[in-house]
Amino acid sequence: MRKLKEIQIEDFWAIYQHFRRPTQMTYGTQIHLFAEGVKPMWEDPKCAPGGKWSIRYIPKTHTNKFWEDLALALVGDMFKDENEVLGILLNLKPSYDQVQIWHASGKEQGKVDTLKTDLE
Question: How far is Cα 87 from Cα 84, in angstroms, rounded to an integer?
Fold first, then answer.
């Protein structure tokens, strides 16, 4: 796993535009994009009190755009509570793809509702 430092959206885009798009990657590939200092594991103290949303059965035709929009929203602090989303994960499967959104406040309903609104 390669760690990226804190990054501005312009710098992120300069790197990201050279990546292969998810539909060009092999099945079984996982991409983790997490905030600086957050490890993509529930044992991380920042993740322990949080939650995760899994969006499954994303059609292959929508994966590239969905992932790109979500990644840019995370890097560009486009969520109302900029510290709520800890990271995102993309898991490529043979017939569909899955995205996970890890968030910090799993039991604070107000923050969960705000995040849900942001994602809609």
Answer: 9
Enumerate domains of the chain plus CATH numbers: 27-119 (3.30.760.10)
Alpha-carbon span 50 to 110, nearest angstrom: 13
Mean pLDDT by groups of 10 residues along the chain of 120 residues = 62 85 92 89 90 88 91 86 90 93 88 85
Rounded to an integer, what distance in angstroms lies between the CA atom of residue 67 and that of residue 45?
A: 26
- Residue 59: exposure state from Cβ atoms within 10 A (0-12, 13-18, ≥19): exposed
SS3 73: helix
